[in-house]
Amino acid sequence: MANMEQGLGGSWTHSFEEDTTDEQVFRPTGAFSFPPSRRPRSTLDFSTGQMVTAVAGPDDKLHRSVVPMTPLGMQRYRVGEGREIEVVQAGSDILKIRAG
Question: Would you call 4 helix, strand, or coil by DSSP?
Fold first, then answer.
């Protein structure tokens, strides 16, 4: 994956308190102190060179799935079937994405 060295490696947990209207914010899983939350936090994991998502289902349990990810250039990726994301910021302590 083209931008693994720019912060997409590892596991990231959704820090929804920091989201804006058009960007989602993720922090390193296991290395960030998240405030308490009643709902489970979704995760993105790039450790294996592909994107593995864990999203809360109707039973509030996290459901994992492997999502194909194709680089499109300019920090943009096609994920799954037809969905695109743009990496707005990727560093050691924060990952911001914009879904299109």
Answer: helix
CA distances (Å), origin 55, targets 24, 74, 75: 14, 26, 23
Instruction: Report the predicted TM-score, pTM, of the whole model to 2 decimal places.
Output: 0.85
In whole angstroms, give the CA distance from residue 87 to residue 60: 27
Round to whole Å and give the CA distance between 37 and 76.
Answer: 30
Q: Where are the domains of the chain?
A: 4-99
**Structure confidence by residue, pLDDT tens digits, 53-65:** 999 888 888 899 9
Domain at 4-99: CATH code: 2.40.128
Give residue for tokens 């194909």: 68
Partners of residue 39 on adjacent β-strands: none
